[in-house]
Amino acid sequence: MKPLKILISNDDGVFADGIRTLAAAASNRGHKVYVVCPDQERSATGHGLTLQAPIRAEKANELFENGVEAWGCNGTPADCVKLALNELLKEKPDLVLSGVNHGPNLGTDVFCSGTVAAALEGTLAGIPSLAASVTSFQWRDFTFASQLALDIAENSLATSWPTKLLLNLNIPACLPKEMGALQWTRLSIRQYEEQFSKRIDPRGNTYYWMAGEAVKDLNSAGDGPSAWPSDVAQIESASPSITPIQPDLFWRGDISELPILTKTSFKSINPLN
Prior knowledge:
Blueprint lengths: L4 E5 L7 H12 L3 E7 L18 E3 L9 E5 L3 H12 L6 E8 L11 H11 L4 E6 L8 H16 L7 E6 L11 E2 L7 E2 L2 E5 L5 E5 L2 E2 L16 H6 L4 E5 L28
Parallel strand pairs: 1-2, 1-5, 2-4, 5-6, 6-7, 8-13
Antiparallel strand pairs: 3-4, 7-13, 9-12, 10-11
């Protein structure tokens, strides 16, 4: 494969081991690597954009391998990719990678994931994009995850990468020799127990800390081939999970299941009442 122009971002920030390992792996394969990512951790920011404050980007080449052009941005992950594609990069990249994330991005959690949002910005711009995560916050060896993400991306570009397809890769926190085979998966339906911890501050005022534990549901999954396991079940079997996602959220159920709209005369509605 000829060298690619790769844009890499994340939500863990410019100092995270995951993004530095991924950028080094891509650069060592001969690709031209650009990094534009938050200047600090911006996890769980979803697809938020900064509209009420200026966005700043500072060069951060010294944090990465020689040849990698990098910026740390004070915005969200989605801000970073938007800024990169519209202002910072002189040419459109061939590929957008987000990660490697410190922690899982499984099931419906993709809606609040800054990692997935960064990759989704690439998808919306018509660029093949992949989000990669290791499913443990304590795991610190991102070498295999980086190599696997690049292998999948390079192979997909060389064979078939449909327009508007986002690939969401999750890698179990174990040694490669302990892993099962990579497999296509469906998004699980993520539920949490005790999502908030209620506490009292020194002045006697109540506050809440979001600290829920994910329910380990191996069977729940959304649309997709019934033979595919859920991404949670795949990770539970110590096997890498890859889920195809598209930004189109349009309803895919039977039209007959939609609510019946009442025939309202808008002329009879007085907006001042």
